[in-house]
Design goal:
Elements (H helix, E strand, L loop, with lengths): L1 E4 L5 H14 L10 H9 L6 E7 L2 E13 L3 E11 L8 H15 L5 E2 L7 H9 L15 H12 L2
Pfam family, one: Acetyltransf_1
Organism: Aequorivita marisscotiae
Keywords: Acyltransferase, Transferase
């Protein structure tokens, strides 16, 4: 198995992994990005993300997508958006190797924190993260405002 930084031509396979993750997370229709989005946003003039892939016999079987953030308390940090391993390849250490690559990336750059979200029912992932030394925060809530809510809020607040 080979862990490497993804290239633009890997994005079709990465998108398939993203779709598989959406199914695993019980959101099969949630993926709106397409290959062109991934190619443009990851490999344009100002790339928004970095992606690592796990390759087994010339097939991409895992991916980790990361990007920089800025914390008012810590400074430059890293966000792990998704760590995905193809269902048929889980339990073989692929996720751990991708995870280590992400942590090495952050460590090599002197970053103060790596952050990510995990679903409360994904107990296997939670146990893995805790064993690695990560702190799974119980008192923080993830907040999202989707496109419709954003549009409604702007319309409502503009009338005031």
């Amino acid at each position: 198995m080979n862990i490497r930084e993804a290239v633009k031509s890997d994005m079709p396979q990465v998108l398939e992994l993203i779709k598989e993750l959406a199914i695993f997370e019980n959101e099969p229709n949630a993926v709106e990005v397409n290959v062109a989005d991934l190619e443009r946003e990851g490999y344009g003039e100002n790339p928004l993300f970095t992606c690592f892939v796990a390759e087994l016999e010339n097939e991409i079987v895992g991916a980790a997508l990361i990007y920089f953030r800025f914390s008012t308390w810590k400074g430059r940090t890293l966000h792990l958006e998704d760590l995905i391993v193809k269902e048929s390849e889980r339990g073989k250490g692929i996720g751990e190797k991708l995870y280590k690559q992400v942590m090495q990336f952050a460590y090599d750059r002197g970053l103060k924190r790596v952050a990510w979200d995990v679903l409360d029912w994904n107990t296997g992932a939670i146990r893995f993260y805790e064993r690695s030394g990560a702190n799974v925060l119980e008192t923080w809530r993830v907040v999202h405002m989707d496109e419709n809510a954003l549009q409604n809020y702007i319309k409502k607040s503009s009338k005031k």
